[in-house]
Amino acid sequence: MTLTGTSPATAAAPAPHTVNVTFAGTVALDDCSGSLVRLPTSKDQDPALILTNGHCLETGMPAAGQVILNQPSRRSFDLLDSSGNSLATLRASKVVYATMTDTDITLYQLGTSYASIRQRYGISPLTVSPDHPAQGAGIEVVSGYWQTTYSCQVDGFVYRLEEGAWTWKDAVRYTPECQTIGGTSGSPVIDTSTGLLVAVNNTGNENGEYCTENNPCEVDPSGNVTIHQGTNYAEETYGIPACFAPGNRLDLTLPGCTLPRQ
Q1: Cβ pair 73, 52 in contact under 8 A
Q2: Domain architecture of the chain: domains with CATH
């Protein structure tokens, strides 16, 4: 339908749909943030997964080149409701996967299913998008540790982000509004047009140093190094779904899986 007096050629484009992002499904760790997540193919009866950073692993930061698989864990997580209140304590049964090589992720498996969590607490998981995030997309970084959200956009992508001994590929750079701080590590980065999880918050250049811990530097394909003091970053997560078989079972040999192997 065309409104009276407005031609189709000059009608204003509809505003992009914006999802109401809340704390529901986020978790607080003892020193980091995280989220209850599902993959696009996950089923209600599957064992639930928690996503945070590799550098938030309770046994210490993985070394460059190190991949940790199926490590026993009893780590606890405070599950939050939409307002950021703690609903329950969830507990891991194992670390499914952790690395700080190419990316910065830890995936925990819980001893309970998505269906059980939804039935007991009314909380559904966030869904990990299988698609690369888009430049200019509106995003929310949701920290369960601080019960704080940060709103900004995807400013662009970094060919290589280097920090200390670690190198991360194709990292997300935020626009300046996302001034994330310590404790926000592992926070889900939500695309506000879809509600899908597209990255995991992980670092920022605090002091203007070059490539030191807490001071990542950007490296382009030609090897040129630049720094942006006060700029913060996240690691993309679209590669995770391709590495999981039915039943939320990690299989790094699956076609299309590009996560680092041991």
Answers
A1: no
A2: 26-127 (2.40.10), 138-236 (2.40.10)
What is the per-residue pLDDT for 104?
A: 98
DSSP notation for 25-46: TEEE-SSSEEEEEE-TT--TTS
Which ranges of 95-191 would DSSP assign to H, the alpha helix? 114-121
How far is residue 43 from each of residues 39, 48, 205, measured CA to CA in Å? 9, 9, 39
- The amino acid occupying position 242 is A
- Count of alpha carbons within 13 angstroms of residue 249, beta-carbon side: 6
pLDDT band at 262 (very low <50, low <70, confident <90, very high): confident
- Report DSSP state, residue 161: E
Q: For 198, left (φ over 0), alpha (ψ -120 to 50), or beta?
A: alpha
DSSP E strand boundaries for 39-165: 47-52, 67-72, 76-80, 86-99, 105-113, 126-127, 138-143, 148-163
The answer to whether 187 and 143 have CB atoms below 8 angstroms apart is yes
Q: Render pLDDT for 197-228 as a digit per residue (tens, 0 to 9).
A: 999 999 999 999 999 999 999 999 999 999 99
> Does residue 106 contact residue 53 with C-beta atoms inside 8 Å?
yes
